[in-house]
Amino acid sequence: MPRLRLALNQIDCCVGDLAGNAESMVRRTRHAAGQGAHLIAFPEMVLTGYPVEDLALRSSFVEASRAALHALAARLADEGLGDIPVVVGYLDRCEEAEPRYGQPAGAPRNAAAVLCRGTVALSFAKHHLPNYGVFDEFRYFVPGGTLPVVRVHGVDVALAICEDLWQDGGRVPAARSAGAGLLVSVNASPYERNKDDTRLELVRRRAREAGCTTAYLAMCGAQDDLVFDGDSIVVDRDGGVLARAPQFEECCVVLDLDLPAAAPEPPSGVVDDGLRIEHVVLTPDPLPDDAPGGTGGTTVPGAPGGQARRLEDDEEVYGALVLGLRAYAAKNGFRSVLLGLSGGIDSALVAVLACDALGAEHVYGVSMPSRYSSEHSKEDAAELARRTGLRLRTVPIAPMFDAYLGSLELTGVAEENLQARLRGTTLMALSNQEGHLVLAPGNKSELACGYSTLYGDAVGGFGPIKDVYKSDVFRLARWRNRSAADHGRTPPIPENSLTKPPSAELRPGQVDTDSLPDYGLLDAILELYVDRDQGREQIVARGYEDELVVRVLRMVDAAEYKRRQYPPGTKISAKGFGKDRRLPVTNHWRESV
Q: Which of 163, 168, 259, 357 could form an SS bridge with 181, CB 3.0 to 4.6 Å?
């Protein structure tokens, strides 16, 4: 039985940075070659970054991607790496497609190629195109119609791209029909809570359907509001796990696979879903038993047994939030962040996330007390800064507030919101002056109900906890403190921030429950309405009071215009605000009528 050493590069990339992404692949190919790899793979669209969105419709970008692919193939050969097949995701176009209505302009393709001996030995496009959630691939791409198979050291390796595994049919059963000994799928599948469990069961099921060992290579990093958590998986034909990479860490998984020898006659013809087999022989003969190469076995960094430690739920979500913030700041040229510190739980969690993502020396906090700020809130902000080491300054807004009230006769909500807007203006002024990225501390509960002030606490360039309900904010904060204590370090978030009633402190004695239901109850209703698209009757049928449901749904429906103006933030749920949930601002339909 032939043995194949497979190297899976679970890495990050940056949209549009063709040169930087190519350089990263050269470096990592060199490393994998040093480990004795016979076949090296990189994630979906790694050359261009993913998702490219409307860049796919720009012909200049498509051509730049194609040129960069050929340049990469030539460079690998020039550096003595050309004899090892390398699978690379990139943006291509269908040369045979004729322009027609309903087809993306230029017929772009979400594609991958096998580079070998200085050339593109084979290229193919994603067959199943996702068009749900954050995906718009019907808008951007035309599907592929082949089953790509490459013969490497006597083993037929079938190839697929992401959704080709997530949807039934297509390349998975076609791999069985073609007699493949290995199925390799390159992916850029965004993170959401509990997806790791779904992913594992998916790969196991597809391996059994394909009748061969299956490798699922995932991207690891972040792009705008999406996080890619890695968690690459290799299973045998019966679904047994052979290797599993860590989440939220770039790495190279190298493993030896004993695989069935390819049939003497290469597969050909049309198989499942009308896919035409495209077979390329790269290295026809199996390696001799005494062939040199690496250390043998399975190498997963940080996992001596070949399977990385699984993260508990809160640790996983926290890791996604840290990675999302770190990547957004770095890829957009920010070395430091700035946020208002009120002493409350939201700003405390965002500050600690920022310290973990960028280092405390790159986190700048501003305390902006008003006449309504309590002493304990000011003390809690100072204590947070002391515990984390972030840089804190105090800018009282009372003089600005009094100046405005001297010119404008404001009362009630207008007076309250003025305070928030003065704080927002202060933060943006400091950002302009000093070059920091302003972080908005709003959570998903507040965004859902419109419990925020436009151009006030909603200002910023990124919202790290935008997709985190308030109940989860408390739970993540407690987990972070517990984790610190378990490792012998000072819990970063003051206990008072965790235990005092949440308050915007815009008027005397104000607490959030003056305007909102209890967060535990509120979040349960929001999760049903926002995340699961359940209506009033369905929610009430679950035992919630009709009057309360009507009140919550009205708040959510009325706040769409605010959400449209909120900055991007890390997506961790199955349905975050933004691309996942698209509703008109002008909308007279109400579930609560």
A: 259
**Residue at 67: amino acid letter:** A
For the record, the structure tokens of 244 come out as 């599993």
Cβ neighbour number for residue 304 with a 10 Å cutoff: 8
Q: Which are the contacts of 541, defined by CB distance < 8 A and separation ≥ 6? A: none
What share of the chain in percent tops pLDDT 90? 83
Residue 475 corresponds to which amino acid? R
**What H or E segment, with its residue span, contains residue 258?**
strand 251-258
| CA quadruple 98, 103, 104, 106: dihedral, nearest 10 | 0
Spatial CB neighbours of 478, under 8 Å, sequence gap ≥ 6? 498
CA distances from 365 to 62, 389, 429, 430 (A): 42, 11, 14, 11
Are 353 and 345 within 8 A, CB to CB? no
Report the C-alpha gap between 492 and 351 in whole angstroms.
Answer: 10
> What are 192-246's pLDDT values in tens digits?
998 989 999 999 999 999 999 999 999 999 999 999 999 999 999 999 999 999 9
Contact 149, 114 (CB under 8 A): no
Q: Please name the helix (run of DSSP H) or strand (run of DSSP E) that holds residue 93, with its range, or none.
A: strand 86-93
- Contact between 423 and 456 under an 8 Å Cβ cutoff? The reply is yes
Name the DSSP letter for residue 568: P
The residue written with tokens 């105090």 in the block is 394
Q: In angstroms, rounded to a whole number, what is the distance separating the alpha carbons of residues 128 and 122?
A: 19
Among all residues, which ones are annotated catalytic? Answer: 44, 126, 162
- C-alpha 243/C-alpha 241 separation (Å) is 6
Distance, in Å, from the CA atom of 300 to the CA atom of 86, rounded to the nearest integer, reads 19
Closest CA to 544 of 529, 563, 555: 529
As a dihedral over the C-alpha atoms of residue 6, residue 10, residue 14, residue 16, rounded to 10 degrees, the angle is: 30
Q: Distance between the two ends of the chain, CA-based, in angstroms?
A: 68
> Which residues pair with residue 185 across a beta bridge?
160, 216
CA-closest candidate to residue 79, choices 26, 24, 5: 26
Omega cis (within 30) before 492: no
pLDDT reading at 305 higher than 80: no
Centroid of chain to Cα 258 = 33
**What sign results for the dihedral spanned by CA atoms 533, 536, 541, 546?**
positive
Find the helix packing angle between 546-558 and 519-526, rounded to 10°.
Answer: 70
Q: Using the predicted structure, report yes or no on whether residue 507 has a pLDDT greater than 50.
A: yes
Per the CB < 8 A criterion, the answer to whether 239 and 209 are in contact is: no
Q: Is the pLDDT of residue 522 over 50?
A: yes
Give every CB contact of residue 191 below 8 A, 6+ residues apart in sequence. Answer: 226, 227, 228, 229, 320, 571, 572
Burial class from Cβ neighbours inside 10 Å (0-12, 13-18, 19+) for residue 100 reads: exposed
| Contact by Cβ (8 Å): 204, 239 | yes
In the block, which residue shows the tokens 């305070």?
419
Per DSSP, the residues of 389-453 read --EEEE---HHHHHHHHHHS---HHHHHHHHHHHHHHHHHHHHHHH-PEEBP---HHHHHHT-S-
Non-local CB neighbours of 333 within 8 Å, separated by 6+ positions: none
